[in-house]
Amino acid sequence: MYQVRRIVFLAAIVAVVGCTNDEGQARTLEAIKEEGTLVVLTRNAPTTWYLGRDGEPTGPEYDMVEAFASHLGVEVAYKIKPSIRSITEGIANGEGDLAAAGLTITPKRRERFRFGPPYQDVTQQVVCRRDNVQPESVEELVGLELTVIADSSYVERLETLKETHPELEWQTVDNVSTEQLLYDVWHREIDCTIADSNIVDHNRRYFPELIAPFNLNRSESLGWMMAKPRRDLESAVASWLEAFRESGRLAVVKERYYGYFEVFDYVDTRRLIRRIDKRYPKYRSYFKTAAEQYDLPYILLSAQGYQESHWRALARSPTMSAG
Q: How far is CA 106 from the centre of its chain?
């Protein structure tokens, strides 16, 4: 429980339940505009959709979906799904108009669904804990406890690899997120899992002992998924995304949510987490009081305080400023 509270503090993310809507056949673009609502299936994660510190929705998929809906002149109704399987089934049975959930465009998925143009490239990575097993090839995965998300692009890749590595085995789980499996690896409950590189980059800040010893494939693309008959919606997404990219707004979204990834440092991150555990509780109430006084987020003040003094009351700057 304590670990969960700490992770919530670090990530400022909370679990939510999405709105519901009657199931039915996939709606036409004209029907979406007439009814004034775009129904979007997604999942709660830092790389897709989540609630920010102010309790309002945010995330890269959220920002893009809101921009697309504004382009169409409609509102968005989000349905937050617990798994990849529930998202694909939801699109298949008409529960949503499109899925914006960090989904990889794969040949198998293209057989069942339409996809908008790619908007981000990712790489599947094998993820383990640095002080546990560290396989460096597919051959070295044999015999390890490898667990992945059911109906994911990771399973598709593993099935392809098994054709040339028949001894390769893995387990699949449903209604569990990739983020949860990364936590399980960090917590030594499983040996390894597979995750997209953007998810790994985001989560290793909360679980710095995680490492990605090797990539499982070359880069793949993420895209929005729609029902197979919905060529009209696919065309609308394509034309909007082209303009969104050319305007520089797509680059702004990527910079906002991923721009800081390259500065990751294991030692500094481990030190920060240790100080959050040991040093920060002593000063938390002071940051909250000051934040209320000046109408600022207390986490923002806490972060600034760490940058200034590492939460040391007797710290001195080169100009002899204290605290």
A: 19
Alpha helices by DSSP H, the chain: 2-11, 29-35, 60-72, 84-92, 107-112, 153-162, 178-186, 197-203, 231-246, 249-258, 266-278, 284-294, 298-309
Instruction: Show the domains of the chain with their CATH numbers.
Output: 2-119+223-263 (3.40.190.10), 122-219 (3.40.190.10), 279-310 (no CATH)
Whether 308 is catalytic is yes
Residue type, 277: D
Rounded to 5 degrees, what angle do the CA atoms 178, 181, 183 make? 115
pLDDT tens digit at each of 323 positions of the chain: 444 444 444 443 333 333 333 334 789 999 999 999 999 999 999 999 999 888 899 999 999 999 999 999 999 999 999 999 999 999 999 999 999 999 999 999 999 999 999 999 999 999 999 999 999 999 999 999 999 999 999 999 999 999 999 999 999 999 899 999 999 999 999 999 999 999 999 998 889 899 999 999 989 999 999 999 999 999 999 999 999 999 999 999 999 998 876 665 666 666 666 667 777 787 777 677 877 877 777 777 777 776 677 667 655 555 545 44
Q: Answer for the pair 216, 44: CB distance below 8 angstroms, yes or no.
A: no
Q: Kindly write down the DSSP assignment for every residue of 194-224, as one continuous string.
A: EEEHHHHHHHTTTSTTEEEEEESSS-EEE--
Q: Which two tokens stand for residue 128?
A: 């383990």
d(CA 128, CA 146): 9
The rounded distance, in Å, linking the Cα atoms of 35 and 143 is: 53
What's the token pair of residue 283?
Answer: 């000063």
CA atoms in the 13 A half-sphere facing the CB of 111: 2
CB atoms within 10 A of CB 273: 16
Catalytic residue among 23, 139, 255, 308: 308
